[in-house]
């Protein structure tokens, strides 16, 4: 099926990117190799994407006039993360070619609408309740039980804007703290998961669909630490996770990429936790371990080119480089295994817990790749020493 506003944007054209972070940077690097030009819009001068684009428009994400300037020099417009202004994206839809559209952006910017949309297409999510008062919270906890997870409906990433509720004694403090964000709050039943998986899927305006292999994700302090591929789960679990991603892409009429994060429980059930309608940290492994990277696939999808093969060429482990890891990585660069691929994002300032880059370690097995990472002793958790 061909969706509305379907046309092919061929190499040599200009892609406008809302957002100038590392995802935009890697989209531009992949697209430039294909012959595309890039213009990005971001409030931070010399942003990571701005360093690889032909031009950067320095403006806030809600600056409609700047967005119209972006539209005037772009053949197609995409966004690199979901916290760009959905209203701006909607305005651009009437003045430019925005194949991803603004509808999915609006859905995924709000945890309530996101979980509602997923549930309505028959995909399991944790039971949840919307809370607008301490009394609502107390009623939700009485119904859902403890532990539970309270989150702001909008904003928040890498664990920010959420609180794991473990006792009734902390409800008042938790509500008062998160309510300061000024958004609705959502309380989710705690899912006792054994593992988090994620799947990146792509679809172009003509309806062609492709799914990357499922990744096993390990977090530290709510920030992604490792993505392991192939995921260390039975083949039927991987197949089901990939089928869930395929269903979401088709039912939500996705164009471009979407990352589907899932919890796997001890009894083999999968629950979708979050969606991200763009390239994703857990898909960085594709840059060196798949025939087509997620970033090239994103360009192919929004430009309505045939999608590339998602075949996995080698087992791989992606490890994030946070601010506290950057100097140790640079000091040990000569000790990296020959099959390790270093990717740095060009951020001006290195801060603790800030994502500065990543390394993809390819090996005959994921266990060997994990051993290479452990041997560097850069990512040693103090509690493990």
Q: Would you give an account of this structure?
A:
The protein is α+β, with helices and mostly antiparallel strands and 385 residues long. It contains twelve helices and 17 strands. The strands form three sheets. Strands 9, 10, 11, 12, 13, 14, 15, 16 and 17 form a nine-stranded antiparallel β-sheet that branches.
Specify the structural class: alpha+beta
Q: Outline the low-pLDDT stretches.
A: none
Q: H/E element string?
A: EHEEHEHHHEHEEHEEEEEHEEHHEHEEH
Instruction: Report the helical percentage.
Output: 25-40%
The tally of beta strands, per DSSP, is 17
Largest sheet: 9 strands, antiparallel
| Residue fraction in strands | 25-35%
Please tell me how large the radius of gyration is. Answer: 21 Å
Q: Report the total helices.
A: 12
How far is the first residue's CA from the last residue's CA?
Answer: 55 Å
Q: Kindly state the mean pLDDT as a whole number?
A: 94
Sum up the overall morphology in one term: globular
What's this, in brief?
Helices cover about 30% and strands about 25% of the residues. It is an alpha+beta fold and about 375 residues long. The termini are far apart.
Question: Which tags fit this structure?
Answer:
globular, 12 helices, four-stranded parallel beta sheet, 385 residues, alpha+beta, nine-stranded antiparallel beta sheet
Summarize the topology.
Layout lengths: L13 E5 L3 H12 L3 E6 L12 E4 L5 H9 L3 E4 L6 H8 L9 H6 L2 H10 L7 E4 L2 H11 L3 E5 L9 E4 L5 H9 L5 E5 L3 E11 L5 E3 L3 E6 L2 E7 L5 H17 L4 E10 L4 E7 L9 H4 L4 H9 L13 E7 H9 L8 E5 L10 E8 L3 H11 L9
Helix pairs in contact: 1-10, 2-3
């Amino acid at each position: 099926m061909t969706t509305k506003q379907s046309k092919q944007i061929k190499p040599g054209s200009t892609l406008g990117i809302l957002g100038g972070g590392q995802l935009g940077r890697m989209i531009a690097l992949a697209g430039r190799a294909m012959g595309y030009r890039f213009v990005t819009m971001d409030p931070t001068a010399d942003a990571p994407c701005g360093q690889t684009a032909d031009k950067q428009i320095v403006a806030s994400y809600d600056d409609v006039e700047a967005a119209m300037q972006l539209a005037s020099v772009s053949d197609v417009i995409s966004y690199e993360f979901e916290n760009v202004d959905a209203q701006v994206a909607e305005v651009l839809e009437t003045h430019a070619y925005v194949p991803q559209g603004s509808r999915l952006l609006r859905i995924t910017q709000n945890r309530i609408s996101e979980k509602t949309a997923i549930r309505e297409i028959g995909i399991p999510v944790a039971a949840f309740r919307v809370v607008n008062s301490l009394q609502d919270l107390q009623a939700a906890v009485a119904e859902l039980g403890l532990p539970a997870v309270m989150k702001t409906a909008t904003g928040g990433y890498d664990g920010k804007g959420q609180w794991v509720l473990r006792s009734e004694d902390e409800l008042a403090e938790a509500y008062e703290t998160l309510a300061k964000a000024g958004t609705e709050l959502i309380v989710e039943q705690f899912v006792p998961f054994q593992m988090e998986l994620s799947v990146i899927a792509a679809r172009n305006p003509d309806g062609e669909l492709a799914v990357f292999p499922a990744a096993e994700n390990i977090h530290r302090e709510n920030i992604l630490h490792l993505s392991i591929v192939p995921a260390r789960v039975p083949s039927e679990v991987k197949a089901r996770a990939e089928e869930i991603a395929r269903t979401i892409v088709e039912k939500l009429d996705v164009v471009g990429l979407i990352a589907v994060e899932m919890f796997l429980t001890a009894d083999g059930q999968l629950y979708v936790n979050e969606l991200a309608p763009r390239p994703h940290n857990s898909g960085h492994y594709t840059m060196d371990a798949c025939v087509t990277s997620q970033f090239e696939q994103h360009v192919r999808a929004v430009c309505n080119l045939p999608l590339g093969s998602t075949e996995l060429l080698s087992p791989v482990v992606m490890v994030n480089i946070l601010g506290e890891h950057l100097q140790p990585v640079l000091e040990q660069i000569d000790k990296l295994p020959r099959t390790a691929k270093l990717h740095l994002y060009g951020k001006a300032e290195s801060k603790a817990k800030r994502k500065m880059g990543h390394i993809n370690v390819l090996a005959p097995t994921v266990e060997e790749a994990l051993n290479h990472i452990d041997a560097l002793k850069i990512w040693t958790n103090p509690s493990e020493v």
